[in-house]
């Protein structure tokens, strides 16, 4: 039921703003689709943490409630980042949400590797400070020595932090 509620809220958000998430590609490769830009994405506030769906892995089974805000009300409550609307989610008390710094600590990412790009389910997270992960949604975290994806876009050759997690569909 919670998953259905989440999907309905997400669908309503996309329809009510008459916008989809803006997927942009690198200028050198017009066919690549593994860079997500937040330009038209609604802001997500999960237990007070600001994120975007492309920069998060959230277990929908842990959602306790969802509130949808749009227009001036969203901007007044959450600032200019909510110009495309906002989804405010409250998670069950036992849910462990990890922001960027707590993710580094939890998965023992060395200071040296903290400067690496982050790839979440084959998608580059362009603004790491918006990373938000439900620990129960994470399958694995790896430091990749070489970026193995078929369509490398804007990722430097070499190392990356790769997070494999549940995808919200």
Explain this structure to me?
With 169 residues, the chain is of the alpha/beta class. 18% of the residues lie in helices and 29% in strands. It is built from three helices and twelve strands, in the order αβββββαββαβββββ. The protein has helices at residues 2-16, 71-78, 100-106, and strands at 35-36, 43-46, 49-51, 56-57, 63-69, 86-91, 97-99, 118-120, 123-125, 132-134, 138-144, 160-165. The strands form three sheets. The protein has a five-stranded mixed beta sheet, with no helix packed on it. The radius of gyration is 16 Å and the shape is globular. The model is unreliable at 12-36 (pLDDT under 50).
Give the strand order, joined by hyphens, for the main sheet: 1-9-8-12-11
Cα gyration radius (Å): 16 Å
Secondary structure: helix percent = 10-25%
Distance between the termini: 14 Å
The assigned structural class equals alpha/beta
Order of helices and strands: HEEEEEHEEHEEEEE
The whole-number mean of residue pLDDT values reads: 80
Shape call: globular
Largest sheet: 5 strands, mixed
* Strand residue percentage: 25-35%
Name its key features.
18% helix, 29% strand, 169 residues, single chain
Secondary-structure blueprint:
Layout (H helix, E strand, L loop, with lengths): L1 H15 L18 E2 L6 E4 L2 E3 L4 E2 L5 E7 L1 H8 L7 E6 L5 E3 H7 L11 E3 L2 E3 L6 E3 L3 E7 L15 E6 L4
